[in-house]
Design a protein that fits this description.
The protein has about 325 residues and is mainly beta. The protein has a single domain (about 30-190, about 200-325), classed as Jelly Rolls. Helices cover about 5% and strands about 40% of the residues. The strands form three sheets. Strands 4, 7, 8, 10, 11, 12, 13, 14 and 18 form a nine-stranded antiparallel β-sheet that branches. The protein is globular, with a radius of gyration of 22 Å. The N and C termini lie far apart (about 50 Å).
């Protein structure tokens, strides 16, 4: 029986999809997990509904990424779910606020993050810096989370009108994760062989790396020559390790963002306007960050960025109903 080339190609594609091995750039064909799927992990999730919720800063904050200084005691929330980053320190303002209009039904509280001195305390670099606020997943759950559990997290982020954003073109906000990942390496060596000729040998090894994938929001200010104020997502990162421009943000107000990690080691990115749940249609991209395969999920966290000029506050970012899920445990 003869099979046409077109028929053969269709058959190959179908088999590849069935086996989950289609690897097109940013492809969504790998088995994905939509953020918000599986068993809810209450210990490392927060809806900010407790009227007594607060954050204790314990200034001055850490800035070890700049001056190698970790300053104790570090900041933490009253419910022991949110913590200052030992590397960059936490945003200068973290507090519970009323939920802006359009949030999830029944939500009365959310969390505001805003920063001024995003670098070393008391020193303005006049170069943008970032602060971090993180959830200590490993401590709360008593160990690291394998990606075979398909960890995934979701959050709602309130984007104010553009005239209320920090008037600076550049990265302003980030939703990120920390993961342990691996990739194969090939080590080569040369040695003298029979009759003194040089020969080479190659051995296979495994390289491990802690990666920090994420979704950033970039602001383009019209005062910097752009036709109008605008914003878009930046995805970190593709198979070559490069950040790249994602969808444009065409409306302000509430957005729902999420990331998931699947047993094949890939990272999946999602976003949609509004405060509703994510669906498969909200998928933006899927990647093996710099050709690494994720093996272990460590935690998730937020970045808040500012000009660090000593006088300009960052964009006020409000988040709500941030939650982590596992499809199995």
């Amino acid at each position: 029986m003869r099979v046409s080339s077109t028929g053969l190609l269709k058959a190959v594609v179908c088999i590849a999809l069935a086996l989950g091995i289609w690897t097109g750039y940013g492809s969504g064909a790998h088995a994905q997990v939509v953020p918000g799927t599986g068993r809810f992990q209450a210990k490392v999730s927060d809806d900010f509904e407790d009227p007594e919720w607060k954050f204790v800063h314990n200034f001055p904050k850490s800035s070890s990424n700049i001056d190698n200084q970790t300053r104790y005691p570090t900041g933490a929330s009253s419910n022991n779910k949110w913590f200052e980053s030992l590397k960059r320190g936490q945003p200068d303002v973290i507090k519970r606020v009323p939920t802006p209009p359009g949030g999830l039904p029944g939500s009365e509280g959310a969390m505001l993050m805003q920063t001024l001195q995003s670098g070393v305390p008391g020193w303005s670099t006049r170069k943008w810096q970032q602060d971090d606020l993180l959830v200590d997943v490993t401590s709360a759950l008593g160990g690291f989370v394998p990606v075979s559990w398909s960890p995934n997290f979701i959050t709602r982020v309130y984007l104010p009108d553009f005239d209320k954003w920090e008037n600076r073109t550049g990265t302003t906000f980030g939703l990120r994760a920390s993961v342990l990942a691996q990739r194969s390496t090939f080590r080569g060596s040369r040695k003298k062989g029979f009759l003194g000729f040089l020969s080479s040998s190659r051995g296979r090894g495994v390289e491990y790396e802690t990666l920090y994938p994420g979704m950033f929001i970039q602001f383009n200010s019209k005062t910097n020559g752009y036709k109008e104020d605008s914003a878009y997502f930046i995805i970190r990162a593709d198979e070559r390790g490069y950040d790249y421009t994602g969808p444009q943000i065409k409306q302000t107000g509430w957005w729902t963002l999420g990331m998931s990690f699947t047993p094949d080691g890939r990272i999946h990115y999602y976003a949609r306007p509004g405060a509703g749940n994510l669906t498969a249609a909200d998928h933006i991209a899927s990647h093996n960050y710099h050709d690494y395969t994720c093996t272990r999920f460590n935690t998730y966290f937020f970045d808040v960025c500012s000009a660090n000029d000593g006088r300009t506050w960052s964009t006020p970012w409000i988040i709500d109903d941030t939650a982590l899920y596992f499809t199995r445990r």
